[in-house]
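Problem: given the chain below (250 residues), write out its structure.
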Amino acid sequence: MGIKLLVVDDEDNIRNGISNYIRLHSDRVDKIYTACNGQEAIDIIVRSRPEVMLLDVQMPGKDGLEVMKEAKTLDILPITIILSGYDEFKYAQAALKYGAKEYMLKPCRSTEILKMVNEAIGDILGEESKEGEGNEVTENYLVNRAVEYINEHYNENLTLAGVANKVEISASYLSSLFSGNMNCCFVDYLNGIRIEHACFYLRQNRMKIYEIAFKVGFHDEKYFSKVFKKVKGVSPAQFKKEDRKGGMTH
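Solution.
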């Protein structure tokens, strides 16, 4: 079943940012619509019948609560997650009265919004253990984002805390995700990527070993050699020698 999502917010950067993030990190949403005001949202709901809606409350003209009320009257209200900058009980109370699934206060982490969307999709698809499955999906996306960032920036001075900040989670949580999903720790994964790139440069035979060490992100040649031998079973010099003989297969 292809899930259709509607993102409603009068702020372009928020609306587009959420849409792009979900488009990149969810394979459960087939189509994403956007609306910058309440009337446009109603038009899309009537025309396209999205199953899930991320909805701002305060918008010029028709506000989010009016959108919910009108869609509910027409019996076409999507599962709605409110994203509001107003921490007032009356807004939350009214939103829940009209059937909102969640009332989230801005600024919201992209990962939390994605988690809520996944839970809503789980409700639609009738999945059992929705909370666990939603967490699993979110965890997979977080790991994939971290791995993608590491692969693009492996030669920089990466740290667990730095990558976790890019993924918008805590360092301890990212560490546990690597242990649970990658069967290795963050440092071992990073070093493994660096060593694979080092092997490529060693095979080219154009740079000295210390130059390769620095090029792939190590700042100490001795530590590089130690890590290389741990990963490959031989020293960089031995790897280079064996590869030139045609005997190095790993």
